[in-house]
Specification:
Elements lengths: L2 H11 L4 E2 L1 E6 L5 E6 L2 E6 L2 E8 L5 H6 L2 E6 L5 H8 L5 H4 L2 E3 L5 E3 L4 E13 L2 E13 L5 E4 L2 E4 L3 H10 L3 E9 L2 E7 L3 E3 L10 H10 L3 E13 L4 E11 L6 E5 L11 H16 L1 E8 L3 E8 L6
Parallel strand pairs: 13-17, 16-19
Antiparallel strand pairs: 1-11, 2-3, 2-6, 4-5, 5-10, 6-9, 7-8, 9-10, 11-12, 13-14, 14-15, 14-18, 16-17, 19-20
């Protein structure tokens, strides 16, 4: 391939969005070494294997080719600057970054989304790179948001949360969630034996306010993805709805309902009634999406697949 074709191929490879890692090890005299990479892949659970690809042109190529142990640090969104530091050839990487020595003295970076310490399993020649396969001997994981990489630029996967919170703070927008617990849906009881999906309080109309309200009720909620954005012509308001899971016994003001026994006729909001009916059907077929429209009609943009329910 000529240089122009190589650049085009590299850009094509870059259309695959990835996370970002920093791979670390120690050279023979104990000096820590590391570089930024997005060529990371899990390989096997039995035995526990992963791989990274190292360019033969990399400054630390020989060190990693001979290393008996190495570590992979999966970066969180707050580590963008650290990623840039380790992508450079700075001699002060480990003086500027915060890290600790993990198992086998491998450098583990602070604030990482996760880390894996590996023993060398196999090195495979692969053109202008070599593939370093490691056997996982220790690992950690945290609940931070990941740092993403796409077409040569970083992106933040957790960006939608501050946008949702800002929209909620502007007024006229309710923030709520369809909360699932073992094929049951959590609903809030209202006056006149009616129901609604759990909502963030007016005093803290945000995702964190919604979670705090559920936690204050003795539940253990976890929001996962945006489920619906709609306008309600009945009230003149707009709604942002997340999907989530929840555990724990509900208080007297809430109740779980099996999908087949959802009291749709007692859900006062037409928009919520339509949304819950859609969720029930999507759950049965294992295909979920984001709804955009009003309380009567709109479009569903499919974003996730789940195994169809057997019930």
């Amino acid at each position: 391939m000529n240089d122009e074709e190589k650049r085009a191929l590299r850009n094509a490879f870059g259309s695959f969005a990835t996370g970002v890692t920093i791979v670390t090890t120690r050279q023979a005299d104990g000096t820590p070494r590391g570089f930024t990479a997005n060529s990371f892949t899990s390989v096997s659970l039995d035995p526990p294997l992963l791989l990274i690809c190292v360019a033969k042109s990399a400054h630390s190529c020989d060190v990693f080719a001979q290393a008996q142990h190495f570590a992979v640090n999966i970066l969180s969104e707050e580590q963008r600057a650290v990623s840039g530091l380790f992508a450079s050839r700075s001699a002060e990487k480990f003086q500027l970054a915060k890290w600790d020595a993990g198992r086998s003295s491998m450098p583990i970076l602070h604030a990482s989304l996760g880390s894996f310490v590996c023993a060398r399993h196999e090195v495979v020649d692969a053109g202008d790179h070599f593939v370093l396969i490691g056997r996982v001997v220790d690992f950690t994981v945290s609940s931070r948001q990941p740092l993403g990489y796409f077409r040569g630029s970083y992106f933040t996967i957790g960006l939608e949360e501050p946008l949702v919170n800002a929209a909620g703070a502007s007024g006229g927008i309710s923030i709520s969630a369809v909360m699932e617990c073992e094929r049951r849906i959590l609903l809030e009881k209202q006056a006149g034996d009616t129901y609604r999906v759990p909502k963030a309080p007016i005093s803290d109309n945000s995702l964190s306010g919604l979670v705090a309200t559920l936690e204050a009720s003795g539940l253990r909620p976890k929001l996962d993805y945006l489920y619906a954005v709609y306008s309600d012509s009945e009230t003149g308001h707009h709604g942002i709805v997340y999907h989530g899971t929840v555990a724990g016994n509900p208080p007297e003001t809430m109740a779980y309902f099996a999908l087949d026994t959802l009291p749709l006729d007692r859900v006062t909001s037409t928009a919520e009634r339509s949304m819950l009916a859609r969720y029930r059907e999507e759950f049965r077929h294992g295909s979920f999406g984001i709804y955009q429209g009003d309380e009567a009609s709109g479009l569903v943009h499919r974003v996730a697949d789940r195994r169809p329910s057997k019930h």
